[in-house]
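User: Here's a chain of 126 residues. Predict its fold as tokens.
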Amino acid sequence: MELKVCKNCRRLFKYIYGPELCQDCAKLKQNEEKDPKNKESKSTLKSMFREEEEKYEQVKDYIMDNPKATIVQIAEANDIAPTKLFEWIRDDRLEFSEDSQNAWFECANCGTKIKSGRLCNRCKIK
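Assistant: Prediction complete.
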């Protein structure tokens, strides 16, 4: 767990995984997903965050359709910076496939190859 700045309201919060949103903004996002016509949640979630989440969903769908695509191919096909893809991978939102073992990260603690995140499962448990 680490401290991050909420992408929507810019407040500090304890980040675990998923979108970089504080608990309040995450609830707003859930409400918006449940009821897309709800004007209250749309007005409070900033368009920049909404655009990033739409891009994330687009990338996720692309990866599902093209599981062997490289970071460069994914970035070019979805018009997104590779650094953003690496950020999502490090945040455990996306992961490398079994076929792309050359691209896997290393655990920050023990050096074991991992598909996403910063720590392997063994180090997360410790």
